[in-house]
Design brief:
- The structure holds 2 protein chains of 2 kinds.
- Chain A is of the alpha+beta class.
- Chain A is 33% helix and 27% strand.
- Chain A has 11 helices and 18 strands.
- In chain A, the strands form 4 sheets. In chain A, strands 7-6-11-10-9-8 form a 6-stranded antiparallel β-sheet. In chain A, strands 2-1-5-4-3 form a 5-stranded antiparallel β-sheet, with helices on one face.
- In chain A, α8 packs across α10.
- By secondary structure, chain B is mainly α.
- Chain B is 71% helix and 0% strand.
- The termini of chain B are far apart.
- The N terminus of chain B is likely disordered.
- The chains are: A alpha+beta, B mainly alpha.
- At the A-B interface, α2, β7, β11 and α8 of A face α9, α10, α18 and α19 of B.
Amino acid sequence: MSAHEPVLPLVRGLVGPDGRLISADQRLNDLNARAGGALGEPLAVPQLARLARLAQRLGILVSRGVVAADGADDLQLWVRAEPGAAGVSLTITGWSGRPAWTAPATSGEAEHAALAADADWRWETDAALRLTFLTPDVGTRHGFDADSLLGQPLTTLFLLGGDETGGFPILGGLAMRERFEDQPARLRATGEPLRLAASPRNNIRGEFVGFIGAVTVERPDSAQTIDDAGGAFAARLDTALRAPLGRIIANADSINAQSDGPLRQDYAEYAADIASAARHLIGLVDDLVDLQAIERPDFHVAVEPIDIADLARRAAGLLAVRAADSKVRIEKPALGEALPAHGEFRRVLQILVNLIGNAVRYSPEGGVIWVRAEREGAVAAVIVADQGKGIAEADQARIFEKFERVDPREPGGSGLGLYIARRLARAMGGEITVDSAPGHGARFVLTLPAA
Amino acid sequence: MSISDRDPKTGGRPAAPTLLARAAAADLRADRRLATAIDDAFLGDDGRLDDRARAALAVTLESLVGGLETTIRAHAARLLTARALPQLAGLIADGVPALDRLRAAGLLRDPELMHELIGRVRQGLIADALPIEPPDRADQPSLLARLSRDPDQRIARGAVALLAAEAHRKAPIVTGTTLRTDLPAAIHRRLIWWVAAALRDVAAGDIDALDRALAEAAQRSIAAHDESDGLEAASTRLAAALDARAEELTALLTDALADQRLSLFIALLGHALGLGYGDVRDLVLDPDAERLWLVLRALELDRTAIAHIGLALCEADPRRDIEHFADTLDSIAAIAPEQARVAITPLLLPPDYRAAMLAVARGVRA
């Protein structure tokens, strides 16, 4: 139960040792009457009757969340049943209509996971704000004796500071027992600047029993973006996203394939949508990892002798299925045709797959894509031409920029492909150019030093 | 993966013989699947793992075996590199996961290993589901936080060590550090040797040098293992430091459950009875719980205390039936402590003797 819900008055009742309702506040009396009961008769709400009987037999206070039917609706009640000499007294709080779905109140696992995803390390406290958990190796990593702080007040670990507006987010969190974030702090032992975030832990009855918190270390260049974060960012992105996305795709595909049994057709199709969205995200991860790599100062490509006519055939081959799906024909360099050049094999293949893939995406049904390899003096070129709607002159520079799209209305694609392709081509001493006119298709030319 | 493998025009061809072979074996596979499905359909409900326990067990196994494997691979690779065998070092650095090989070899069905792991998994699931009771006063710390400030240094240190051990059990294993399995030494040793043996099957190279490196890496991991590091050991030490008198024991037991410290609850009972941790864990995790009620009565816990403990365990463990417990509570409370002590004497016999009795009984039944 969140702290923002209006506090309802307690509803009380008394159930005799024989299970009859002796007295009840109005709300309980009404609920009981709607269930077909009356004062002096056995309590007619089965869940409450059962709880009262349990408390009676155990001889101890039993406190529980109960869902009771009230006409067509469900009621969520927090009930304390306490046995005494006169019978079992019921105290009901949190009288509310039951929401369609409630997350299990005990775990807070989702919030926990969300906090942990961004955090450098984690902490937990009990209701009196004594530390009960610290990420095991945090002391070694940050230079303090973590174990000796377990059981101590939270403030022996952190020195709290005001935020940009002079406020203390943690105070609001403590007062309302709700989630707070961006609380500036220092590690008391070392002075290391930190940001704290935490969400409350509640027990099954929704009572506050402590905080689950996360710590983010404030790094000097705190204005880090994807562009200038270290290689660690890409590595983390890769591992953090690729495996879960892979699982999503695998599961969605097997739901779609109905491998565990038949399924209504629209659900199977939703699963296909989920898989395709996840594939799109994996593509984006690939692009971001590439982007991160090529923007590093120490990025370099291998320069080796390659045959770009062969590469163009391979790239076209890789896209043959997608082209067939879109009813598009790719005319690739003839078998045996060769054009030696200098560049890195897999990077050139990556560029060509991107260019031909774009051409497939923007080609009309029944269209043709021409892929040709030509030598122009000291330059080897691959030309990819399509019959799509073309690109206006004004847009031709824009599409090579980060997060720009040939057509922003088209679904799919990250807007990074052409940017990455051009950066790669330039790193190999080449270039990608485009010429096009609206309605007349587009022609992308990859040039590399000829061998 | 090479480019041509992904080319749809050539991708299908090399697979054709495999496909034919698989098709030929289809009857046999279908038969095996049917046998598995029949076994599955007629498995008894008693003792089955529920889905949560099964998933948690799989995760525990994966992280334990995976962690040991990473440590052994890394160390063996270092040794091989130092011995100028970089190619072999490269081979051992990655390969078929040991878990797959151990599973295929059937070794993981080892009753002692599984007894320990299933006990640990169930203990963890029940502990997490125990209803935390907020303190009576808002500023009153939880049990272990309170004990960590005890004037008795042994108790204070024990409480802090238990909090640290719980954190270790709960937090995901950090790669690159030495893995703490928290397993009993004998099981830890057995698992290490299995993992090492599962890793020796690399394609080619100097097998003698590989065996030497793996054996050294395994021995190093065995030497680094300290049984007294674990959660169970920390709980046992704290229980010994507390050395609760009978009148304190009741409050400590209920407080331990209210703070989700099931391991401390087990260790407190173990200390009071003079029983080992594993034996008490078995009887605390037993959903029928008759032995637990006898033990609590033998320790002179009253009806109210047993009701609190029973209620908490029923709330946390879906295998238990609260209605059945409420029905039997009066007869539990009616047992005299002396009577209960007589009834649990078999539990107090030497563990090896009890294991032998069980083995004989099992043999006779079969």
